[in-house]
Structures are given as C-alpha cells and as structure tokens.
Amino acid sequence: MEIGKKMFWGWGLGVLLCCGACTGLNTPPSTPEAAEKNAPAATQSPSKEAALAPAKESAPAAGEATPAAQPSAGPGLELYENEAFTMEIPQGWEVAAAGRGLYHVVRVYDPREPLKQIFTLLQAEGLLHNQMAKTAWHEAAQDDPQMSLLAEAPVLDPPSVGNFYQIFPQYVHYISAQEPSYTGFFFPRFEGLKIVANQPLQLNRPEKVLDSRLLQATFSQEGRIGEGLFSAAIVDFGEVPMVMEIDKRPRKVDGGYYLAYDIAAITAPQGQLGEWIETMSSSLHSLRYSDKFLQSLAPDSEKEEASAPAVIDHADVISQAMLKFWKSKPQAASPKGEATQEKAPKTEAQ
Q1: How far apart are CA 197 and CA 204, in angstroms?
Q2: Which uninterrupted H or E stretch holds 321?
Q3: Domain count within the chain
Q4: Has residue 7 been placed in a domain?
Q5: Which domain range does residue 298 map to?
Q6: 122, 184, 199, 307: which sits with the fewest CB atoms below 10 Å from its CB?
C-alpha cells in the first residue's frame, strides 16, 4: 500500500502521509482504563485541557451571586458558566461538555426528560468520501496499525447534511472509540432519523461549503420518539491519494474525507417541540465561548485558527435560523404526541 504525499490535520495533529508511513498519528488507547488515564483531568483548572475536559455539571443555583460583568439570564433561564463557555440554560437542566479544540461538544438537557435537549458540536472529522476510501484505509492498517485511525471511519456518500445525520450513530460509535477527550460523554445518536422538512442555512464560513442546511426531523433515542431541528455544514477536506491493489493491479484511489461544522440540535418528545422551541433557541443563542477557549484553537493548526471567527457567531446564527424556520412551518408539520405534562417557560423574543 502506498499513500500519496498529503498533509492533513487529524484530531488537531499534523500528520504527514507518505510512502506508506504514518508519523505523529496518535493511536487511541486500547482499553477503557487507558483512555480514562489519558483523558484530560477535570481538576486541572490552570490548563487548557481542564477547561475542555468531559464534565457533567448542574446549573448554578438560582440564588448564587453572578459576576457583575456577566449578563442576567432571560425569563425561565439561569446562567451557567465554566472556563470554556457561558450559557443561559432552562432552570433545573444540566450541562455536559467534552472534547478539545474544535471537537468541543455541549449537551444541555432536562434530567427528568432527556429528550428535551440542546446539542452542539463544533466539528466532526473523518467522514470518508466513499466505500473505496474505507477499503483503502483498511488495507493500509494491515501493514501499519497506526493507519487504523480512518479504517473504521463512516462513509458520507453523498456529502449532504441529511445524510450526515443518517450516519450520525455510526460517527458517534467511531469517534467515541478514537477520541479520549470524549470519555464519559453521552452523545445523542438521533437514530432512525426521518426528515420532515429542510431549508438552506446561510453561514459565514471561510471554507467552501458543499451543503449547509437546517432539518426538521423525527428520531428515536433509547426507544422513544423525539422531534427536533438540526443544523450542519459539510466541507471537503480534500483528496488523500492512495494506491491499492485491485484485480491484482495497483490502482490510484482517493482516501480523502469530509468535515461537518456548525452541528447543532434542539429536540423534545414528539409533539412538544413547539412548546419549547423559543426557550431552547434562546438558550442556544446565549452560548458564548470564552477568550481562553478561542485562544486555545490557534496553536493546534492553521485550520482551527481560520475557523475561530466562525465559532464566535456559531450559536447566534443557528439559533435564530432555527426559530425562524420553525415559525415558517405549518403547525401540522409537528405531529402531536402524548399530552404535555409541563409547559415551557415563556422567553422574550431575541
């Protein structure tokens, strides 16, 4: 197996693929114990890793003092903050966060009803161009186990937002095994996703975007039906030239992959999203990454430095687009499920 000369930034590491050798690739731990040992420690507050380490935290109590520089939370919301970001979340909800750099992920959810959740992931990487690329990486891994990094990656063909969410369960399975900083984090999988409606999403990204879209869809989570709004933008990382044997002859194949940015979801039990859309979109709209977090992106790679401006207005643009998209759809587009047991608190319009 030969791999053409190509530089790519896999999980924040510069990797030079040349002549079948792979240098500097960070092989994931082989056991859960090793993964936990290598994961960033949540108690290391002075470090970059501590700010981005996996965490499951309750929101501050409503009566706690808030620094004067921080804005007050909107109606029905309370302020949550850590070293990486601040966010106004629905009262009584919990926050889980994990991942480093552009792989940072946040899930805000109601512990009494986990289908009520706000999910945001800045970037997903390693979405292979086609099945041939997957086969090529599998063969490469036979000669060099370090090549296994992409051998188990999911295929995104065609490269659309709808298809990205169709394979999202595969991506979660893949990345959870590969990325130690996700240890202990619960990813929603949005299984059996069925798209009800969609529309283009206008984002100010530095890269050429293949597809950027909002979806309205139903899905299942732990055997229950939910509905939600979903966003993502698909970008092509580019070709990774490889050579593999086909019919006993060497053939050039493309081992490249796509990336997905601006991944966000607002969900609720089926039939209840309309009652929570304004509260949850207001919460997502309030997400602000700290200067420390934004500064932490630059040292990893030029790609992350270029994407930092997009991170700043990531939540603003998506939350506003989601709310506008929902209000433009007929109420009949959201089938009514079981009777609602709890009303969402009213929030002021953004």
Answers
A1: 23
A2: helix 314-328
A3: 1
A4: no
A5: 51-57+72-333
A6: 199
